[in-house]
Structures are given as structure tokens and as C-alpha cells.
Amino acid sequence: MHFEWTATYGHILLTGLLTTIELLLFSGFFGFLLALLVGFGRLSKQPLIAWLSLSFTNLIRGTPLLVQIYVLYYGVGSLFVGFPAVRDSFLWPYLREGFWYVVVALTLSVGGYVGEVIKGGLRGVPKGELEAARALGMSRFLMIRRIWLPRAIQILLPSLAGESVGLLKSTALASTVAVMDVLGAANLVRAQTFRTYEPLLLIAVTYLVLALLIEHVFRRLELRIPVRGAL
Amino acid sequence: MTPGPDSARRTGRTNKQKGNSVPLHQPDVASDPGPIIDVVDLHKQFGQQTVLDGVSFSAHVGDVISLIGASGSGKSTLLRCLNMLEVPNRGSVRISGEEIALKTNHKGVSVPADARQVDRIRTRLGMVFQNFNLWPHMTVLENLIEVPVRVLRQSRAEAIEHAEALLEKVGLANKHHCYPSFLSGGQQQRVAIARALATRPSVMLFDEPTSALDPELVGEVLKVIRDLAQDGCTMVLVTHEMAFARDVSSQVMFLHKGRIEEAGSPEQIFVSPNSERCRQFVNAQHSRS
């Protein structure tokens, strides 16, 4: 094992790490917002909204994430190239980069998967707690914001930790559309130094540490509200 | 008429607000001796089943009205119609003289015409449920100040002060920072009563408040309700605790098949009911306990 290449390529790996974390945070944030819409949409009494949410979930969960990224990057992305209006717009620097296509793909993916999880959590909150909120004078919106959603998230924290780690690992797909995330950086090192295992092992440990960090954060959140019978 | 928590509430608010011109929710009961609750000809169906079949009654300040009857007689539904947790198909509900406006939606279902009116009226009706329904992600104190702060826009300090006083009253002053799951059923129900009182309601609604409790915990909850009754709190109570109903009520209503079969003083209902069904029910409850 030789790691002397880290002296030369360390900064590339660090930049890659930053990109991976950015992908995680952006798609985690936007994906969660989308998941809330999908989760509530799945429970909607309006048939159209419920159907749209279900169709979206099925579409996202029924197709490989890699295919979704390709469709967005090569499909939608190459359509943009054909429009001078888009090429000349201030958005073009972003639309040229693979980064934002991956963020969009991951956001949609989180929306589909976590939306279904959130639906389950919303259903898991005892109806009586919601009824008490309404009976004491809360509007429906306030009840959702103060009771229903916080309770669902409380119930779901362990699942959300799992989904977040899953999202972290999904960000590695960004390297397939030339985004220099951690894996992308490792591939670069591999190509230029002909060292195969060391860079891969190093980033495997990096992902592992990030995953443990995510688990730790969620564990802290879970412990904020003590529940009898839980550890 | 006993001076109820209503009058206490008014003086309390006036002191704190120091001439603030924020209008109070209720009309002044002293100058308006009308009923706090006035229900006329309430009908409610669930699908094909008729649960309420023309119920009318009214409650005045200081009244303690117990609803008794077999399961399925409609007593819980009647209580839940008072704050529109169930919307009656027909009939009217007036709270402190204000009629809750209803309309028929496009599916032909009866719904409140103005959700905000219902929300506003609900803050005047404190409700206590069979299963407590505390919010487990909040501490006891947070449960109590949630609606006063978020809905009634009281200052946090004012809401906390009132909440602490209420916890003192229900004997749980030392539990304010506990989460509900660490409390016994009896303690949770006492917190739920304090939570319902936190909005300074003009009426308290109790829906079988001791039915989910272990027998040894029933007493502590009944004691709190009894104290409230003695303070002059107006309340409507659905209960299976006959001895308690007889003890605290100013009026008892016996429901049968969605109708008020008999209503009267506790003595009348429990000692010399006119209705044969009422007599049978009361005797059966007697021999059980």
C-alpha cells in the first residue's frame, strides 16, 4: 500500500468530498420538501392529487436511479443545448454542469422514496392526537404544522436516518456524469497514478465515516424527545 | 347561578390586559342570562344508521349535565356535535348565543360553513377525551401552553403562568417538564383536563374521561372533575360512573336510541325515573357496581 499520492491529489479528494456533501445537502433538503408534498398527496381525498402522487412514486421507484440521471443529463440536458435562448441565459453555467442534473435526479428520487415513508408515518400518528388539536381550536394547517408532521417525523426518525445514508451512497452516481464528487476524484487519481485500491479504499472509509456521522446526528435528534420503553 | 370560572376569567383577563380593548370572546353572561349551550333538534346519521334522532337541550352557567345511556345510545356523538367533531345532519348548535353556521357541500354532506368560526368557538369548549390524547412530542407544560400561545396569541409568559396554576390545581405541579409517556393514565388524564382548561373555556366537555383508566386511577381523575364542578365550572359529561354522575350533576340526561328518553335531577333519574327503560338501565348499573 502506498499513499504518497495523497500529497499531490489530496486537494482534489477534498474538493470531491465537498461536492459529495453539497449533493447530499441540496438533494436531501429539496427532496424532503418534495417528499412532504408526495406524502400528503398520497393521503389526499382529492382523487387527482392522490393519483398524481401515486403515479410519481411508482415512476420514481420503478426505474433505476442511474437511468433517471442519464435521462435528465443526456436527454433534457442535450435539449437545452439546442435552444440559443437557454445557452445565452444566465442559467447556462449551471445547466452545463452535471451537478445540478444530479441534484434534480436525487431530489426526485428522495421525493418518491421518502414520500412513501412519510405517508406511512403520517398514518401512524394516532388520530386522537389530531382530533384533540382540532377540538381545542387549532386550524387544520396549524394542526399539521405543530402536531401531525412533527409526530410523524418523530416516529420516522430511524427510517429517515436509513434513507439519508441511502441518499449519501446514491450521490456516488454523480461521477457517471462527470461530476467530481468523492468517487469522481478517486477515479481521477486511479487514471493518473495507476493505483487502483488505495484511492478506492480511502473513499470507502470516507463514505463510511459520513454514514456514521449521519446516523449519529439522527440518533441525537431521536434522543431529544425521551420516550418510555426506548433506550 | 353560581359565579363560575367565567367570571373569574373575565376579572383575570381584565386585570392582566389593563384596559386593552381586545374584545372578549364571549358576551357578558351576567347581562345575558341565556344558555351557554343551546341545542335544537339535532339529527345525525352514520350511513344508514341513525345515531341522533332529534335531540334538544340547553345548558346554563354552572350546570353540570351528565349524559348516560347504553353504548350506541348516541351520548358521545351528541357531545362531539357540540364542538363539531361530528357535524349534525340537521338541527342547530348555539354556543353563548352564537349559532354554528352549517351548509351542505356538493356531496350533500352537512359541513361547517365557516371553519374559522368553528375554530374560534372550539377554544371556548374545553374537551377531554377517553384516551387523553396528549401530544407525546411535547412536555406537559408545552401541551398546556400550545393552544393559548399559538391560537389565542397569549404571551408565552402569561400562558406559562396560567399553565403552572392549572397544574397545581390538578396536583401535577412537579410534572411540568415530563413527557406524557412517563406519566400514569390518571396523571395523563389530569394533564389533559388542565390542557382543556388552559384556554379558559366557558364549558368543559368530558367524553368518558375515566373509561380507559385502571380502576385504581379513576378516583384521582374524578376528584379533579368534582373540584371543577364545585368551582362552578359549566360541564357536559358523558360517563358510565353512575355514582359520580349522581353526585356531581345538576341535571342527568338518559339517552336511548338517539333520543333523550328522560332528563331531570339526579334524584329523579336515579331514584324515581318515569321511563321504564331508564329505570332498567339505572338498576342494571347499580347491581353491577
Q: Kindly report the average pLDDT value of chain A.
A: 92
Give the helix level of chain B as a range of percent: 25-40%
Question: Number of DSSP helices of chain B?
Answer: 10
Biggest β-sheet description of chain A: none
Protein described:
The complex is a heterodimer of chains A (231) and B (289). Chain A is 81% helix and 0% strand. Chain A is mostly helical and 231 residues long. The longest helix of chain A is centred in the N-terminal third of the chain and has 37 residues. Chain A starts with 5 loop residues before the first helix and ends in a 7-residue tail after the last helix. Chain B has a domain of 67 residues. In chain B, 38% of the residues lie in helices and 22% in strands. Chain B has a 6-stranded mixed beta sheet, with helices on both faces. Chain B has a 4-stranded antiparallel beta sheet with strand order 2-1-4-5, covered by helices on one side. In chain B, strands 6-7 form a two-stranded antiparallel ribbon. The interface between A and B is medium-sized, with 24 and 30 residues.
Overview in brief:
The complex is a heterodimer of chains A (about 230) and B (about 290). Helices cover about 80% and strands about 0% of the residues of chain A.
Question: What layout of secondary structure does this protein have?
Answer:
The complex is a heterodimer of chains A (231) and B (289).
Chain A: H1 6-42, H2 47-62, H3 65-81, H4 84-88, H5 92-96, H6 98-124, H7 127-135, H8 140-170, H9 182-193, H10 197-224
Helix pairs in contact in A: 1-2, 1-6, 1-9, 2-6, 3-6, 6-8, 7-8, 8-10, 9-10
Chain B: H1 5-17, E1 37-46, E2 49-59, E3 64-68, H2 75-82, E4 90-95, E5 98-99, E6 102-104, E7 110-112, H3 115-122, E8 125-128, H4 140-150, H5 156-169, H6 185-197, E9 203-207, H7 215-230, E10 235-238, H8 242-248, E11 251-256, E12 259-264, H9 266-271, H10 276-288
Parallel strand pairs in B: 3-10, 3-11, 8-9, 9-10
Antiparallel strand pairs in B: 1-2, 1-4, 4-5, 6-7, 11-12
Helix pairs in contact in B: 4-5, 4-6, 5-6, 6-7
